[in-house]
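The aim of this short unit is practical: by the end, you should be able to scan a pair of folded records and say something sensible about each. We start with the first protein, listed as its amino acid sequence and then its structure tokens.
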Amino acid sequence: MKSIVIAIAGGSASGKTTLTNRLKNKFGNQMSVLLQDNYYKRNDDIPFEERKKINYDLPDAFDNELLVSHINMLRYGEDVFCPVYDFSLHNRSDQTIKISPSEIIFVEGILVLQNEKIRSLSNIKIFVDTDADERLRRRIERDVIQRGRKPDDIIAQYNETVKPMHDKYVEPSKKFADIIINGEEIDESTVESIFELIMKR
């Protein structure tokens, strides 16, 4: 088996996961998903309060070598054991997720198009483009509900690292995309058009 790899990038809370989940509903068992978020490096030797201050939006915050290795293993028919990142701890958990190979591999994350090795493995590259104010609104809502964060901490992190790194690394990676979609309008026609494009590969 040599699978098709689809990279989905975009800013934090742009709608990447929404798009991925909508496509997953169409492909079902034909599709495997690797989330770049799960490949944040371990920081076991750093106290919790210090881990909160780390810049998680830098390219080297991720163990991209492991992610690339896992993409290649899946492409050639091997199972992988993906790490699991715990956002409440600002660190990897001790758990892993077994991901089995499939015909289509989705690789989703803010910086997957910024990384040359991931781009080179990707057959289709998608960028989800969403207005900055909307991304911040979604991020606050998501992080409070799903990640146990406080609004003031979310806004501080956004202003100190998320937005500057978005402007420096994420936004410029849009030029590598084959498809740019509006993250505020991920409707059925958008999903269907991407589905049909993938099926033609």
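Turning to the second protein, read its sequence before its tokens, just as you did above.
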Amino acid sequence: MATVKVYNMEGAEVGSLELNDAVFGVEVNEHLMHMAVVSQLANKRQGTQSAKTRAEVSGGGRKPWKQKGTGHARQGSTRSPQWTGGGVVFAPKPRDYSFKMNKKEKALAVKSALTSRVAADKMYVLDSLSFDEIKTKKMVAVLDSLKVNKALVVLGEKNENVVLSARNLPKVRTSLYNAINVYDIVKYDSLVITKDAVAKIEEVYA
């Protein structure tokens, strides 16, 4: 079983934690991780883009000039794609970009992402993380003590002061243990996670 150091909010090492290999020590499946990221981004797309084809634009019913004898190239309609005001070739239409992954695939993708962070020594476990007031400086101080810049902060339970303290930091995102996803884990350089969140993640995914 992999063992990671446990830090306090001042960045001092206060112990160690053994991780469950069924969650944090699986064989990394990059294909499923890629699928999970593409799926999440695709599911976010509105898919409302639309343009008119030559069949849908108004006008252009009459042939603009006769076929021969004018010196112009032959034209059948003023609403052909090459004309100003004409239709669009292969015009985009509203569509649904989303696709689904199986539950087991999603779970393995998350476990692969978590394992990759452990393997890269980019997972920092805190014994606890809580503030008595909303203060961005306090969150910055915690991250600086861990020498972390761009981080996903995972909490075991909702803490409004922590969430609001991190909200103004452009390179920091907070998430509850049951809302983590592959996109966020791989997007942020480091994973800062509380000890209780590790236990709850192991309960969910083990």
